[in-house]
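Operator note (shift B, R.M.): manual run for Response regulator requested after the automated queue skipped it. Running by hand, logging everything below so the morning shift can see what happened. Input copied straight from the record, untouched. If output looks odd, do not overwrite the archive copy; leave it for review.
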Amino acid sequence: MSEKVLLIDDEEEFLNALSERMEIRGMDVKTAATADSAVAALDNNEYDAIVLDLQMPDMNGIEMLKAIKVRHPDMQVILLTGHATVEAGIQAMKLGAMDFMEKPADIESLTEKIKKAQAKKMVIVEKKTASKVSDILSHKGW
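Run finished. Output pasted below as returned.
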């Protein structure tokens, strides 16, 4: 099963190059170059992982991560940045980011992290489904 990924970055050339490299590896990749287009993409689709740029002009990655976690708390987010700081990395992880990587990210390493994100999301979905089934069965007299 191919991984569904939303790639968010304001640098169009980088966005196109990285999405092409990810698609060659069999991933289903959608892109967003602005915060508004990213929010619209998130509200209308399901993703296994989001790869998010830390520095964007309309909303920085930390603010976007907060907005994503409010609306989609189970979403697996990997932050990418060309301006990494320890503080930003720690803040991102505290806010629920799955990982934090520096640009240019090694595509093999990024691919592995996306596969882990997909597996983690599948476990979360399975647990939620099992909980719902258990809840339904406990309220029905079957």
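Quick read of the result: Strands lie at 4-8, 28-32, 49-53, 77-81, 99-102. The two ends are 35 Å apart (CA to CA).
Leaving this for review. - R.M.
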